[in-house]
Design brief:
2 copies of one chain form a homodimer.
Chain A: H1 2-15, H2 22-33, E1 39-40, H3 41-51, H4 57-69, E2 73-77, E3 83-87, E4 95-100, E5 106-110, H5 114-124, E6 127-140
Helix pairs in contact in A: 1-2, 3-4
The structure holds a DNA duplex (25 and 25 nucleotides).
Family (chains A, B): Belongs to the Fur family.
Cofactor (chains A, B): Zn(2+); Mn(2+); Fe(2+)
Protein name (chains A, B): Transcriptional repressor
Chain lengths: 144, 144
DNA sequence: CTGGATGCAAACTGTTTGCATCAGA
DNA sequence: TCTGATGCAAACAGTTTGCATCCAG
């Protein structure tokens, strides 16, 4: 149920004294609709443009920042010069990215395998890990 | 022996019909001197400025790009809006980064542990991994 | 009604490019 | 000599900011 998720976010906004504006609603709705995609500010802006031409690019940026801060979205960067955002899968259930060096396609994989690695690092180095980002580069099935 | 490493790179440049210019020499020398540091173009530019004020920022960018392409340097991004470069430790001996969320300090660790992970991924997903970038976020010993 | 949110345009930052000049091979 | 490399300035892309206006609470 998508709007259930949305309502949860709206709740949270209110609780933290942020206003629930139509712009914020629209942007969240877009991400819920495109669950799993990694959208840039520009892309969000362009899509919304069609149905809501009043929304400004600055508002998109501000809203994406806000949502990232509230952990509604996760901020990503694939080193193409622009930040991307994706819906943060509720509870800490990360996934990571396989980036095809040829066609640029981005595949994903879960991070269960990484937990063991984290433990080993924590044991070796005096560093408390609380998050990680992993990117693998290579060639997807269509490209080799 | 540092200039041995430098000479190797100069060799390579010549072999690939790139010219060995004083600017390229200076930039490489800087990275050799600051081995292990992650320098941004701006930083390289500012440091060189002191001893070689003629060198232009555009040249720094072009040279960093070139070196990255030749695998002399490795291009990194710590999501602070600017690219950084570090000396690429000769043969494929990667290390990865532990980024302190509090003070921004960047620690490093080797990647021997990751190999097993790669194999598991390759087995599961149809994707030929040829490189990876891993970043862990957390708190370093001074910050928790 | 009131302060936070918005839209717009201008400012900013990091990076790239066009072009005349320079210099390594 | 002659093409690739440089320096400079202008152009660019993505993002941020100032400010008058608007509207959710």
């Amino acid at each position: 149920m998508q709007h259930e998720r949305a309502n949860k976010v709206f709740e949270m906004l209110k609780q933290k004294d942020y206003k629930v504006t139509p712009q914020r609603k629209e942007i969240l709705t877009l991400f819920l609709k495109k669950d799993g995609e990694h959208l840039s500010a520009e892309e969000v802006y362009r899509v919304l443009q069609e149905s809501h031409p009043e929304i400004g690019l600055a508002t998109v940026y501000r809203t994406l920042d806000l949502f990232a801060e509230l952990d509604v979205l996760q901020k990503l960067s694939f080193d193409d010069g622009k930040n991307r955002y994706e819906l943060n899968d509720s509870e800490i259930h990360h996934h990571h990215h396989l980036i095809c060096l040829n066609c640029g396609k981005v595949l994903e994989f879960g991070d269960d395998l990484l937990e063991a690695l984290e433990e080993q690092i924590t044991a070796k180095i005096d560093f408390k890990i609380i998050d990680h980002k992993v990117k693998f580069y290579g060639y997807c099935s269509g490209c080799y």
